[in-house]
What we know:
Elements: H1 2-11, H2 13-27, H3 43-51, H4 77-89, H5 93-119, H6 122-133, H7 136-142, H8 148-163, H9 167-178, H10 188-198, H11 203-222, H12 225-229, H13 234-250, H14 261-265, E1 271-278, E2 281-287, H15 291-303, H16 313-322, H17 340-354, H18 359-381, E3 384-386, H19 387-396
Antiparallel strand pairs: 1-2, 2-3
Helix pairs in contact: 2-5, 2-6, 3-4, 4-5, 5-6, 5-7, 5-8, 6-17, 8-9, 8-10, 9-11, 10-16, 15-17, 16-17
Amino acid sequence: MWPKISKFAKSNSLLLTILLIASLLRFIGLSHPQAYIFDEVYHAFTAREYLRGNIDAWEWWTTPPKDVAYEWTHPPVAKYGMVTGMLLFGENSFGWRVGSAAFGVGSILGLYYLVLSLTKNKNLALISAFLVSIEGLHIAQSRIAMNDIYMLCFFIWSLYLAVKSRWKSAAILYGLALASKWSALYGIIPLIFIYLHANKLSLRSVLLAFRLLLITIAVYILTFAPFILAGHTWAQWWELHRQMWYYHTHLVATHGYQSTPLEWLFDVRPVWYFVKYQEGSIMNIYALGNPAILWLGLVALVLQLKKVVTYPYSILYTLYFILFLPWFFSPRIMFFYHYLPSATFLCVILAAWLTKLPSRIQISLLVCCSASLLLVSPLLYGFAMPTQFWDTLFGLIPSWK
C-alpha cells in the first residue's frame, strides 16, 4: 500500500501541491468570525437545529427565534454536511464551515480529473485546478456555511464520472447536487451532451437514460428521509416543494448587495458578508472574485469562441453558459455568489488559453493572478486593515463598497 501511495505522490507532486495551497487558503482561520455571517443565520442555524432534533427546522409554517430563520427554501444535503462537521468538531463556526472547506478542495480535485479526462492534457488540468484554488469567489464560498460549494462539488464529480461512462455513479452524484441546490437542474444539459457523445441514439440508450433519471430522482427523494422519519407525511413533502418553488419564483425582497448577471461578469458588485469596526481599523469579509482571473477569463472566452464547435470546448462552453444565462430570466433578486459554477468553468477556459501561450507569458499571467488574490485577500479573510486602506480601495472601486 505505502509503495503505491509513494509512487502516486511522486507522479502527482504538482497536483498535491495545488491541493495543499487550496487547503491552506480554505482552512486557515476558518473559524473567524465565530458568529454567523450572512446566510449562515439560515443554513448553519438550521443545521444546528437538525443536529438537536428540532422538527421545527423542517417546517415552513413555524416561527424561528429572533435574528435567525429556518432554511427550508433549499433541499437539505448541504445542511447535512454542516451537521457532520458539527458532530466532528462541535457546534461552533469551524464545525459548521468545515464541510464547505472540504467540499471546496474536493471540487478542485474533481475538476482536475474532469479536465484531464476531457482533454488528456495534464498541464491544462493542473492550471485549471490552480486557477480555481486561487479564485476569490470559490474561496469565499468554501469558507462560509452555505449550499453553493456542496452543489458544485457533487456536480463536478458527476460530470467526471459521466465522462468516464460510470453512469449510475454519475446519476447518484447528480441527485446529491440537486438535493443541495436546485440550480444544479441546469446541469442536466451538459450531462445529456456527454451522454450523447458517448452513446449512439437508440432505443437501448434512451431506456438507459430514463433509468439514470429515475436513479437521480430516487436519490433526491431519499435525501428527505429525515423529514419523513420525523413524522411528516408525503403530502407535506409535496407541499414543502410547492412552498420552495413559490418562494424562489415570487421573492420580491431587495438587498443592498444584490447584483445582476452582467455585473457578475466584471466582478463589480461583491456581497458584503461581515464587518467589525475597531479603533483605527475595520474587518470586512466579501464574496469577491479574483479580478485578474475573471477578467482574463472573459478575454479567453472571446478569443477561443471559434472552438466552441469542437469537443471538448463545446462541453466547457456549455457548462459556462448553461449555469449563467438562465439567471438573466430569474424573477428573484440575485447575488454574485450565484456566478460560482460558471466562474469555476471559466477558469478552465482561461487555462486552455494559457496553455497555448509562450511559457514566459503563461507564467507571467499566472503570477499576475496570484498577486491579484494577494491584493484582495483582506476582503476575503476579514483581516483588520486601517481605515485609510478601505477608504483608498473603495475610492478606486466604489462599487465594491
